[in-house]
Write a structure and sequence with these properties.
globular; alpha+beta; five-stranded antiparallel beta sheet; about 200 residues; about 25% helix; 2 domains; about 25% strand
Length: about 200
């Protein structure tokens, strides 16, 4: 993930340099800037191409292998507890990943009732949290139901808060839920279904 992120950063930086009429050639320990004379439209096109390539690379860097928060190396304090599912509904957001996506909300309850007084991020509530898969997607409804994520069900859960690094500051994990194959249950959205 680290090398992938560095390559993506180089691609995005190259895009912004191209808009100014420079080519950026990353060398071993330095960056070489080469000026070139092209029109403004070409500069814009180059910027867009390089920035999009970097964004696509970031989006796909080990996307299927991510286990936990993104952006490591990071350290966390963890609060074990349980989550009670409070709602399960169809995800109607136009930007949803799956046509059959589900909005699943839960309330986290730490095992130690005094844990919330020690939270580093007390503004991040334990109630009405979204159950997400992958890199922040709503899960497919059929997959969620097969994992027992129904209203009123209780599941082992961990709240984690960052103490060092640049990853997500707060998150929740469900250690007893098998996250594998959620993508296989996702009904792909078609171009037509995305418009409406």
């Amino acid at each position: 993930m680290l090398i992938c992120g560095k390559i993506a950063t180089i691609l995005i930086g190259t895009g912004f340099a191209a808009q100014r009429g420079f080519a950026v050639l990353p060398a071993l320990h330095r960056t070489v800037w080469i000026e070139f004379g092209i029109g403004d439209e070409m500069k814009k096109a180059l910027k867009l191409g390089w920035v999009m390539a970097g964004a696509i690379l970031i989006a796909n860097c080990d996307a299927n292998d991510i286990d936990g928060p993104i952006g490591g190396p990071c350290s966390y304090v963890k609060y074990p507890g349980s989550a009670i599912i409070v709602s399960v509904e169809q995800d109607t957001n136009q930007m949803r990943t799956c046509e059959n996506g589900a909005l699943i909300k839960f309330t986290f309850q730490p095992t130690d009732s005094s844990a919330s007084s020690r939270y580093l991020y007390p503004h991040r509530s334990d109630t009405n949290q979204a159950f997400l898969v992958g890199s922040g997607c709503s899960p497919p409804l059929n997959w969620a139901l097969s994992r027992g994520l129904v209203v009123g069900s209780e599941h082992s859960c961990v709240r984690w808060e960052i103490i060092s690094g640049t990853c997500s500051p707060v998150g929740f994990g469900f250690p007893d839920i098998d996250y594998s194959a959620w993508g296989d249950s996702c009904e792909a959205r078609t171009a037509l279904s995305r418009r409406g």
